[in-house]
Amino acid sequence: MRENVKSMSKLTNIFKDFTSGDGVATRMKEYDRRYGGATRGGAVEHKTDYRNAGTFVNRYYDLVTDLYEYGWGQSFHFASRAHDESFAASITRHEHYIALKLGLRPGMVVVDLGCGIGGPAREIARFSGASILGVNNNDHQLTRAVKQTENAHMTNLVDYLKCDFMNVSLPDASFDAGYSIEGTCCAPDKVGVYSEAFRLLKSGGYLAVYENCLTEQFDAKNPRHLQLQADIEYGGGLSFLPLTHEVDDAMRQVGFEIVESRDIAATAPPGIPWYEPLVGSGLSFATFRSSAVGRRITSSLLWLFERFRIVPQGSAQVSVMLNLIADTFAEAGRLGIFSPMYFILARKPTG
Questions:
Q1: Average pLDDT by stretches of 10, the chain with 351 residues
Q2: Is the CB of residue 160 less than 8 Å from the CB of residue 132?
Q3: Cβ-based neighbours of 72, under 8 Å, separated by 6 or more
């Protein structure tokens, strides 16, 4: 009972800052009209709208950021988990892994491409002592990122820049290292975003990425696989989903040397799969809000809150869309055709 009351309080508090206000219903209707429908198609339109001042991605994150933070926390990514490991610990470990692979240390300047509301940037800076610049093109997320960073007293190590990570308004060779945790999945093409990362890194600098990918088990002739792909792109705000080898090819094409690439979801030791928090019973308070039970309760609460005008009209519809993507992620994960943690460590050659 106490957890339910706490959840209701957190839900209403988060939505007090919902910048979309009464426009949520209109925005959700427009997003669904352009990118939804029976087939969830429109990859070409996604890419076109992304290039039009980031319209596609901004539409998506204006709608979902508050519910992401409510249901998942300040780090918008997945992680595999050991049987005796908490959800929060697995998320932190996933971020520390990036810092260790990059060899981050005090004095280094690092770019976070697609930083969300800054959860990973704050944790990686705290863990490594490196200075992190988070790049993000969404005003609502940046507002949350700045506020959370001030609350965490991390402004000495973490800062933010509003711009498109396909065209960062900084000079060449500005950073010692770079990373993206399920951020570059929003790019309209991999070559473009990796080229920009290549430009921003100093000679010999490393880039580490967790990428959303279709695995080699994906069958382009299987109708169910194709439907899951389309639903992930629609519900996840993605321009398209590449195969793992296409990510490697894009890295090499722009000049990176691939040091390591592997699907962490497929190679992780036996434990709790990355998608379990989306389908669990909700018995764990740590993952209650993201569980199937918790998500249903959230949708019901939002519907009720809409009636009393506590949250903006359309909030419950956004929750329904996120329930779709949660179920889709889980099914694609169980089938082994999709991974949100294809890991690439690449190096910009010296000279």
A1: 45 51 66 63 49 58 74 87 92 98 98 96 98 95 95 98 95 98 92 97 98 96 94 83 96 98 92 86 46 58 62 67 83 96 98 73
A2: no
A3: 289, 290
The residue behind tokens 């949250």 is 311
Phi and psi torsions of 127, nearest 5°: -75, -40
pTM of the model: 0.84
Query: For the chain, what is the HEC assignment?
Result: CHHHHHHHHHHHHHHHCCCCHHHHHHHHHHHHHHHCCCCCCCHHHHHHHHHCCCHHHHHHHHHHHHHHHHHHCCCCCCCCECCCCCHHHHHHHHHHHHHHHHCCCCCCEEEEECCCCCHHHHHHHHHHCCEEEEEECCHHHHHHHHHHHHHCCCCCCEEEEECCCCCCCCCCCCEEEEEEECCHHHCCCHHHHHHHHHHHEEEEEEEEEEEEEECCCCCCCCHHHHHHHHHHHHHHCCCCCCEHHHHHHHHHHCCCEEEEEEEHHHHCCCCECCCHHHHCCCCCHHHCCCCHHHHHHHHHHHHHHHHCCCCCCCHHHHHHHHHHHHHHHHHHHHHCCEEEEEEEEEECCCC
**Token couple for 144:** 């949350």
Q: Single out the residue of 293, 275, 294 nearest to residue 10, CA to CA.
A: 294
Interatomic CA distance for residues 293 and 282, integer angstroms: 6
Closest by CA position to 187, among listed 246, 239, 132, 254: 239
Q: How far apart are CA 293 and CA 298, in angstroms?
A: 9
CB 180 within 8 A of CB 340: no
d(CA 162, CA 165): 9
Closest to 264 (Cα-Cα) out of 145, 97, 126 = 97
Distance of alpha carbon 94 from alpha carbon 209, whole angstroms: 11
